[in-house]
Amino acid sequence: SAFSTSSSAYAPYNVKNITVFGSGLMGAGIVQVAAQNAFNVTMVDLNPEALKKGQDIIASSLKRVAKKQFPEDAAQQKAFIDKTMAQIKTSTDSEASSKDADLIIEAIVENLKTKQQLFAMLDKVAPEHTLFCSNTSSLPIGEIAKATKRTDRFGGLHFFNPVPQMKLVEVIRTDETSQDSFDSLMDVCTRMKKTPVSCKDTPGFIVNRLLVPYMMESLRIVERGEATPQDVDVAMKLGAGFPMGPFELADFVGLDTMKFIVDGWRKEGKIDDNLVAPVKLLDELVAQGNFGRKSGQGFYPYNGVGGKK
Ligand code: 3HC
User: Fold this and answer.
1) What's the whole-model pTM score?
2) Measured in angstroms, how far is the CA atom of residue 99 from the centroid of ligand 1?
3) Please, what sign has the CA dihedral across residues 117, 119, 121, 124?
4) Which residue ranges run through the membrane (predicted)?
5) Distance from C-alpha of 179 to C-alpha of 177, rounded to nearest angstrom
6) Which of 19, 67, 71, 118 stands the most exposed, by the fewest C-beta atoms within 10 Å?
């Protein structure tokens, strides 16, 4: 490709403008971190209500960050928040929003067809040099990239919840991702003050490949009557140093999301069936609408703002 002439490790694109599709928890978090680090960011969603929710997520998270960075200095806190907000534009116009993007990051619904449709459209309207990325946690990057003619300029940038706090980004390269594209993505992560790790396009990449089977086995421990969720959580926090136990984490990630991931992997058939064997307890909670923190009830009850009761 015209874009892989350089073999130097230096990132060739010098990404300045980032457009993020999706203003949910992940999209808003990515927008915030990019804006905090001087990228020009456009946040895109289908309607103004969704954008407003995204802005609210950013505003409340920025307040926490500002308080931490400038303790007891309200003026500096405000200056930091204003400066960051000024880096962010919002739009419901997908086409116009991609016109000056150097990098597009997609964080919309976890649905392969929907993602493919978005990228097929963007491939036609975005500039030639624009890099495309998905923040998917469970779908194959290569399958999404197939919807475009720029598979060499396509990769994965997988952030973790809560994005402003979690240091890691998994940078996923497919067999077709060019070295230049990959270098640019690593460079963007560093400039966002994140620590990138490189991973091939495999189910769950690194973190979820390990975390999801571990969470499923935690559910099986409870289902077999060997321990309570509370005791498993205490055990993993105090015995393994995890910040949250597996049941707290499941509630945090969303039980519906967990089920979606394991069901998808089982169908895909690329990882050992035993690791993702269905667990009745999970299926039942999801069928009842108990998704965890976001619905007010999962393994634990939550109050309106998502704190534990
Ligand atoms: N914005 C900015 N900062 C935030 C934040 C937010 N939304 N949420 C938390 N923080 C910061 C706080 O300001 C605080 O900062 P400090 O320690 O520097 O003062 C720090 O995070 C800790 O917050 P709290 O004291 O309020 O609460 P906890 O100590 O319980 O930490 C947690 C909360 C950071 C969520 C921690 O419990 C944790 O790390 N949990 C594990 C999270 C995890 O594993 N995430 C990955 C999930 S898997 C995933 O995302 C993949 C998906 O694809 C399935």
Assistant:
1) 0.93
2) 34
3) negative
4) none
5) 7
6) 71
DSSP letter for 4, please. Answer: -
Q: What is the pLDDT of residues 115-142, one digit of tens each?
A: 999 999 999 999 999 999 999 999 999 9
Cβ–ligand 1 distance for 215 under 6 Å, the answer no
Is residue 208 part of the annotated active site? The answer reads yes
pLDDT-above-90 percentage for the chain:
93
Q: How high is the ipTM of this complex? A: 0.93
Active-site option among 158, 176, 218, 248: 158
* Cα–Cα distance measured from residue 25 to residue 107, given in angstroms and rounded to the nearest whole number: 9
Distance CA 204, CA 306 (A): 26
Which ranges in the chain are annotated with CATH 1.10.1040.10? 208-295
Query: Which are the contacts of 297, defined by CB distance < 8 A and separation ≥ 6?
Result: 290
161 catalytic per annotation: no
**For atom 27 of ligand 1, which residue has the closest CA?**
243
Atom 48 of ligand 1, residue of closest alpha carbon: 160
Q: Where do the CATH 3.40.50.720 domains begin and end in the chain? A: 17-200
Please say if 72 is a catalytic residue.
Answer: no
Residue 12 to residue 69: CA distance in whole angstroms: 32
- Ligand 1 centre to CA of 103 (Å) is 26
Q: Which atom of ligand 1 is nearest to the CA of 159?
A: 50
β-pairing, 103-106 vs 131-134, is parallel
pLDDT band at 56 (very low <50, low <70, confident <90, very high): very high
Q: What is the CATH number of domain 208-295?
A: 1.10.1040.10
Q: For tokens 């998270």, what's the residue?
A: 61
Q: Where are the beta strands (DSSP E) in the chain?
A: 17-21, 40-44, 88-91, 103-106, 131-134, 154-158, 168-173, 195-200
How far does the centroid of ligand 1 lie from the alpha carbon of residue 177, in Å? Answer: 31
